């Protein structure tokens, strides 16, 4: 079996309007990447035409795969199912709205291959009115996480995380929340169990 350096999980829920364009953007980045890769789409029972878009995207692509949930299970469970199916040495996911650009993916993969167990994105919002509410919510949540969970991280919620596949699987079994708190939980548990977590 051919070695896969990176498994990229794309969690989908009603992404019909942006999915194809976002994947095109990701593939443009991957054309300049030296790592081998696969993309795993996990559709969480979308109510629009996301499933049809995914089927069209994977047609004829030997390194594109899909999982279709028969009921809505939550974002965290969606990413979890992708990680379990993955074959890559490094496994990661990004939000398909590309709030954080895919151009950073190769450097995140390189950091994991260089020895980090978990590499997370840390979003820094430009100070303007359009992003003010997101910046306030992000900083407030970050403060609460650091205070109550006693972790040093600035942005546990960002949808831009990459893992050493072998080392994250035991942590994955301990995660309990299948929804939005999944991101914070997996990073916190990784930290508690001595994994090297890096923020970029």
Largest sheet: 7 strands, mixed
Estimate the strand proportion. 15-25%
The spatial strand order of the largest sheet comes to 3-2-1-4-6-5-7
Rounded to the nearest angstrom, the radius of gyration is 16 Å
Count of helical stretches: 7
By secondary-structure content and strand pairing, the structural class works out as alpha/beta
Helicity range: 40-55%
- Please report the total strand number as a whole number: 7
- Could you name the ranges where pLDDT drops below 50 across 5 or more consecutive residues? none
Output the helix-strand order.
EHEHEHEHEHEHHE
Gross geometry: globular
- Averaged pLDDT: 91
What is the CA-CA span between the terminal residues? 32 Å
Question: How do the helices and strands line up, and which of them pair or pack?
Answer:
Layout: E1 6-12, H1 19-30, E2 37-43, H2 50-58, E3 64-68, H3 75-85, E4 90-94, H4 105-113, E5 118-120, H5 129-149, E6 160-164, H6 165-172, H7 182-192, E7 197-199
Parallel strand pairs: 1-2, 1-4, 2-3, 5-7
Antiparallel strand pairs: 4-6, 5-6
